[in-house]
Write a structure and sequence with these properties.
Elements lengths: L1 H15 L2 H30 L10 E8 L4 E4 L1 E2 H10 L3 E15 L5 E8 L3 H4 L6 E2 L14 E4 L1 H8 L9 E4 L2 E8 L12 E4 L14 E8 L5 H18 L1 H4 L2 E7 H6 L1 H35 L1 H9 L4 H41 L12 H27 L3 H6 L8 H37 L9 E7 L7 H16 L4 E7 L8 E7 L12 E7 L3 H4 L6 E2 L13 E5 H7 L9 E4 L9 E7 L14 E5 L7 E8 L7 H11 L6 E5 H8 L1 H35 L1 H9 L4 H34 L11 H27 L3 H6 L2
Parallel strand pairs: 5-10, 7-9, 16-21, 18-20
Antiparallel strand pairs: 1-2, 1-11, 1-12, 3-11, 4-5, 4-8, 4-11, 6-9, 7-10, 8-9, 13-22, 13-23, 14-22, 15-16, 15-19, 17-20, 18-21, 19-20
Helix pairs in contact: 1-11, 2-9, 2-11, 2-12, 9-12, 9-14, 9-20, 11-12, 14-20, 14-22, 14-23, 15-18, 20-23, 22-23
Length: 805
């Protein structure tokens, strides 16, 4: 311990004598450790931490997959859940649930909460016990069950001020009375971010299987049963169901996945790990940079090391001294990097909170494992950055060093190692810069995108109708009254309703084209659609290019009609006139009415960057019952100024219906693509830091090369070499390092392009312009890094160089 403290004290004194090197090294490690810790915190809080529940590691989801179409994670009809529950052998208990938002009234103003309709067994799957009262009981999740509710701790505090007598009180949900029987513990919000749990009272024998409510299925693995074994079990059940229910289940398989992975989804999981890999590359670049700086320093200390060895210092003592210096630098980088990570995590959490409702299990902060990870990263950085110069110096031949007064041959091997590290830095920088370039172009295109409809001064808000509005005429009357009163608000130019906000999302389902033969329901194509009120296209300033828009005459009971977008017309009626053609919702056996195409409009952004211009159709809201609609109001001035007026209008029409998700449409659209901008910006940051570090690394190597060849430069110039020749020689030495690093890095970028493509909008992941631009930028940075040492070499006085040392 005494020798370690002595080495650390000497290391600190030694580094203080080289403040430039110390600052650059600490800065590099701060970036490397800070970014890596930030990204690991995100991955750990979202993926690796798992469910913070008893036996959380055994909680899984069971879902259907379409084997032929490569479609994964599909929910299943209620009847199918009961089939799996009865036939499975891998789970201790299974449960079904369906999530959504709910109107809540009684005991205060009407509000909108996220809730879940669940089977009673759900609380056995997640092993949760209510803080007050009880959970749902078997039998309550049947059509004849009692109307009971379990509420969250936050709802209990907010609406009932934590009243312990809340049990037995009536809570109106979607216009129906439910008796509160339990309150869950603080922080418990599963699934999603639920505040209310109601019994799932669907009859599995009612109606056709494919027309029933679709549910998510969760299960608790039996002890000792693996996810793979459970997947084999449910796959066998799926085969039997495919034979038994050929029309609806042919080609459908089943899989099991850990709950957290299933909720996050495969693409976000790939993206998170790709981001983590990217910051590891930044860390490697930082460590390579520090190793290069220490190699440079070690070369200048070769005689010192030789003298110490000649006086009896062991190889281990030499290695320990270099590692001590690296440890001091890494410790400082770890402290500053942790502070940087804390700021980065806080910023990410603010974005997450403002942009989306993350699942309840996501908890991103500096957990103890994250801090242990930071310590491990600092230790790894110490070993990587310190071991290279330590081993190189300790292998130096003492006699050679003591005879080599100009440090030429003794530092040859160090020069080779430095150049190798620089090429690694350049390769990793090229990979990150390609990703950054693609992100910059994608975000730029996203920001400059013309969505195909009006976004300026557009107010949006969402409402959900209670189940009492099952009468189509009653619903249509409320639609009409709402639009009339919204249009009468001062400053409002147009108003309409839609089943979703354009550019934020859309309904999706099977669509049958009249005259087309489908072998099975699985062959029926799918398309997006919106149910919209009269005046929608005028409000959104979407021009009808063929035919007509939806009219006030397109009412319930009238001739069913639709307006399609150009992508729909091109896909399903190529080279034909779509007007007058008929389509209907559902598969081959659907009993939905045929809808006649009466108009065509341009393509509009759907909210999903990967499917930005998909086939879409627009149907009259009056002909399609939907429990949720979004208000779309075009205003002459700031859109949020009408918020209070809108709330008053809705309260006057129905006091039980709350208004929620109140945004300007631009903000609503920004929320739908927040992850592209957020992670895209992070990739840009990674690339910029990688470029900075690689340039420093190349500069350090070139500077080291010039300094150790000072005598050679003097002799060359004394023999008549011109400054230009010296510059070309130095640039030539750096050029092949840049070329090798670029070729390797661009090759890695090509291999990584499919993962990066998840974040891209209207940009090809192998865009040649981006690759060429990265090559140019890195080459330019390399030239700049070589320029200063090259110019310095031309200013060497031959006489001074010949007398050096």
């Amino acid at each position: 311990m005494a020798s370690l403290l002595r080495d650390l004290k000497y290391a600190i004194r030694s580094l203080r004598k080289n403040p430039g090197l110390s600052v650059v090294a600490v800065l590099a490690l701060t970036f490397g450790i800070g970014l890596t810790t930030t990204m690991f915190s995100i991955v750990y809080g979202a993926m690796l931490r798992g469910l913070p529940l008893p036996d959380g590691g055994r909680v899984v989801e069971v879902y259907r997959v379409h084997l032929a179409r490569d479609r994964g994670k599909m929910d299943m009809p209620v009847a199918e859940y009961y089939d799996y529950r009865e036939q499975q052998k891998s789970f201790s208990v299974m449960a079904a649930y369906n999530t959504g938002t709910m109107n809540v009234s009684g005991a205060g103003l009407p509000e909108r909460y996220t809730g879940a309709w669940t089977t009673a067994s759900f609380f056995d799957v997640i092993r949760a016990t209510p803080q007050l009262g009880r959970a749902l009981l078997p039998g309550e999740d049947t059509p004849q069950g009692a109307k009971v509710a379990v509420i969250s701790h936050s709802l209990w505090q907010r609406r009932y001020a934590g009243d312990p007598k809340v049990l037995g009180q009536t809570l109106r949900v979607n216009g129906q009375p439910f008796t509160i029987v339990g309150v869950m513990p603080e922080g418990y919000r599963y699934p999603d971010v639920s505040d209310i749990w109601l019994p799932l009272q669907d009859d599995p024998l009612a109606g056709k299987r494919d027309e029933q409510r679709y549910v998510t299925v969760a299960a608790l693995l039996k002890p000792g049963v693996s996810v793979d074994a459970a997947s084999v079990d449910v796959a066998g059940i799926a085969k039997g169901l495919a034979v038994r229910y050929k029309d609806s289940d042919e080609g459908i398989g089943a899989q099991v996945m850990e709950y957290v992975k299933a909720e996050i989804g495969p693409d976000p999981e790939k993206l998170l790990y790709a981001m983590l890999g990217a910051v590891f590359f930044v860390l490697l670049i930082a460590c390579a940079n520090v190793a290069n700086l220490l190699l440079d320093r070690a070369a200048h200390r070769a005689r010192e090391v030789g003298i110490r060895c000649a006086l009896g210092a062991s190889r281990a003592a030499v290695i320990r001294q270099f590692l001590a210096e690296a440890l001091v630098l890494a410790a400082m980088g770890a402290v500053l990097g942790t502070a940087m990570a804390q700021a980065g995590i806080a910023a990410f959490n603010r974005i997450l909170l403002d942009s989306t409702e993350a699942p309840a299990f996501i908890d991103i902060r500096l957990h103890a494992p994250v801090l242990l990870f930071t310590m491990g990263v600092a230790l790894a950085a110490t070993l990587f950055a310190g071991a290279v110069p330590a081993l190189q110096s300790s292998r130096t031949d003492i006699n050679e060093v003591l005879k080599d007064e100009v440090r030429g041959s003794s530092s040859l091997h160090m020069g080779r190692m430095s150049r190798t590290l620089v090429m690694v830095e350049l390769a990793l920088s090229a990979l990150l810069l390609v990703s950054s370039g693609l992100m910059i172009r994608s975000v730029t295109k996203l920001n400059a995108m013309d969505p195909g409809f009006r976004t300026r001064n557009m107010f949006t808000a969402r409402i959900g109708f209670p189940v009492t509005y099952t009468d189509t005429l009653m619903e249509a009357r409320l639609y009409e009254q709402l639009c009339e009163r919204l249009a009468g608000v001062p400053g409002v130019q147009h108003a309409a309703l839609s089943s979703s906000v354009p550019g934020v999302g859309a309904n999706e389902g099977s669509v049958t084209i009249e005259g087309t033969v489908y072998v099975s329901d699985n062959d029926v194509p799918r398309a997006g659609w919106l149910a919209v009120s009269t005046g929608f296209f005028e409000t959104m300033e979407m021009r009808v290019t063929r035919g007509r828009a939806l009219a006030s005459s397109d009412r319930a009971g009238g001739n069913p009609v639709v307006v399609v977008n150009q992508a729909f017309a091109d896909k399903f009626f190529p080279g034909q006139d779509p007007l007058g053609r008929r389509i209907r919702q559902g598969g081959r056996t659907s009993t939905e009415p045929w809808m006649t195409v009466v108009g065509v409009v341009p393509n509009a952004f759907t909210g999903d960057p990967q499917r930005a211009r998909d086939a879409m159709y627009y149907a009259p809201l009056e002909q399609h019952h939907t429990p949720f609609v979004s208000m779309l109001v075009a205003t002459a001035g700031p859109p949020m100024a009408i918020t209070n007026a809108v709330r008053e209008i809705m309260a006057g029409l129905n006091a039980d219906i709350p208004v929620y998700r109140v945004y300007p449409i631009e903000k609503a659209m920004a929320r739908s693509v927040w992850y592209i901008r957020t992670f895209g910006s992070m990739f840009m940051l990674f690339g910029a830091i990688a470029l900075f570090l690689a340039a420093i690394g190349l500069y350090a190597v070139m500077s080291f090369s010039v300094s150790r060849r000072t005598r050679e430069m003097g002799i060359r110039m004394a023999l008549g070499a011109q400054g230009g020749q010296v510059v070309r020689m130095i640039f030539g030495q750096g050029a092949w390092q840049i070329a090798v690093g670029l070729l390797v890095g661009l090759g890695l970028a090509v291999l990584a392009s499919p993962v990066v493509g998840i974040l891209l909008y209207d940009v090809q992941p192998r865009d040649p312009a981006i690759y060429a631009g990265v090559a140019f930028v890195l080459a330019l940075a390399g030239v700049a890094a070589c320029l200063v040492p090259a110019v310095r070499a031309t200013r060497v006085d031959p006489m001074v160089a010949l007398r050096a040392e």
